[in-house]
Write a structure and sequence with these properties.
Length: 433
């Protein structure tokens, strides 16, 4: 057991339960991502519910805005009341939201389901990686986090691939709403799995539990008071926000090029397969390239995807999409470990939720913009604008992050091994972002 982890004494039975958290979480994430609506949700809204592309992306905007509002409060709930509680309620709420989404017959009910869905998402975003990291840390295995979190991302990809292939076929031979409703049942299985989790211990807690508002205030102080954390969150959330906004246009792109619904899963699967491989080999790639080069590659890959899709108005241009999905999977592993190593356990879920909040803010602005551009001037123009935004956004933030990262330099950073200091580094005084 590592020196840091030994700050909390655990029994042999507790250690076994905490180690079992990892494979149980794999099962949990598999069912969370094994969703049959994945290949058809946009087409379902357009063809079954009569929404335009502008309306579809406008419907998504309140979803992302609510994510912004709820990310930090729900992250603080995970830090204050437990990661297991947050994950369990998140899965249950998500199951209800998906079922309502599948049976909704008007815009108002769809909007309500989106709101509930957003609340569910925030309950387990941030809490998930904090749950795994602290479980490993309690048994002295935090060095394994990058490898095991990469495996988690690969398992998510396996679930998504099955959902893509099966969902498209079910939709083709039945109705567009049936795969959506069935997905609620699969999410319910994830909820049942969460009952078996063992809540991991904390390592920086003093006597008594801090108040909810103290947790939030301290988290913001750590997140924005440390330049390497601040600029990493702003850079990666902004660039990935643009990338995800383009990924949401995949199904409209295929429909515009007259691809049959049954083929959607076949088009979307290669990206998931590559993201699975990318997540599994992230640790090895990291040892070859280092964290700095991977972060530099992220905006370059997203920009390449946008330029390719904007320049080639033909279905073959869809081949650019797997570049972004693969980079997204790899960078998610790197970013998660990078932030986890720099933030205290007591604030971990809240700070990771702050990162997700910034990401949601980027998507809430970008997605409606790209949808409107696609409806007004066509999807190629929307992709070109996305490329310009990435270039303008990434340049200065990347320079600021590189300077802060090199100045700080935690030993072992380039391969993301555990930092040498036995205690968490003290955060710098809070500064405005």
């Amino acid at each position: 057991m590592s020196n840091v982890a030994s700050a909390v004494t655990i029994s042999a039975n507790e250690a076994r339960a905490l180690q079992a958290n990892v494979w149980k979480f794999y099962l949990f994430r598999f069912f969370v991502d094994f969703q049959l609506w994945l290949p058809i949700w946009a087409v379902y809204l357009i063809e079954e519910r009569g929404l335009s592309l502008t309306q579809l992306t406008a419907l998504d905007a309140p979803f992302w805005i609510l994510l912004i509002v709820l990310e930090v409060p729900t992250g603080a709930i995970a830090d204050r009341y437990g990661r297991k509680v947050s994950l369990s309620y998140g899965a249950l709420t998500n199951a209800v939201a998906v079922i309502v989404f599948g049976i909704a017959t008007n815009f108002g009910v769809l909007l309500v389901s989106y709101m509930v869905w957003a609340a569910a998402f925030t309950l387990y975003s941030g809490a998930d990686s904090a749950f795994v990291y602290d479980s490993l840390r309690a048994v002295g295995r935090e060095r394994d986090y990058t490898r095991l979190w990469g495996r988690t991302r690969a398992i998510q990809a396996v679930g998504a691939i099955l959902g893509l292939l099966m969902g498209a076929i079910v939709a083709h031979y039945t109705t567009l709403w049936l795969p959506v409703v069935a997905s609620g049942g699969l999410m319910g299985v994830a909820w049942l799995v969460s009952f078996s989790f063992k809540e991991p211990p904390r390592f920086e807690e003093t006597e008594g539990q801090p108040s909810y508002f103290t947790v939030v205030k301290d988290a913001f102080g750590v997140a924005f008071g440390r330049p390497s954390v601040r600029y990493m969150m702003l850079l990666t959330a902004g660039v990935m926000g643009v990338g995800v906004s383009m990924i949401i246009l995949q199904q409209p792109f295929l429909s515009e090029h007259e691809m049959p619904i049954w083929s959607f899963g076949l088009f979307l699967t290669p990206g998931q397969l590559l993201s699975m491989v990318g997540a599994l080999v992230t640790y090895r790639v990291l040892t070859l390239l280092g964290v700095s080069r991977i972060i530099i590659l992220m905006p370059l890959v997203v920009m390449t995807t946008a330029v390719g899709l904007g320049a080639i108005d033909y279905v073959a241009a869809f081949a650019f999409y797997p570049l972004t999905t693969t980079m997204f999977a790899m960078s998610h592993v790197v970013i998660s470990d990078y932030l986890n190593r720099r933030i205290p356990s007591a604030n971990r879920a809240t700070i990771l939720s702050i990162h997700n909040m910034i990401f949601s803010l980027a998507v809430a602005g970008m997605e409606p913009l790209l949808g409107w551009l696609g409806d007004t001037w066509g999807l190629p123009v929307a992709y070109r604008i996305a490329a310009i935004i990435v270039a303008v956004l990434a340049g200065p933030l990347l320079a600021l992050w590189l300077r802060a990262h090199r100045k700080e330099h935690i030993p072992g950073d380039e391969v993301l091994g555990p930092p040498e200091p036995e205690a968490e580094p003290e955060p710098e005084p809070a500064q405005p972002p």
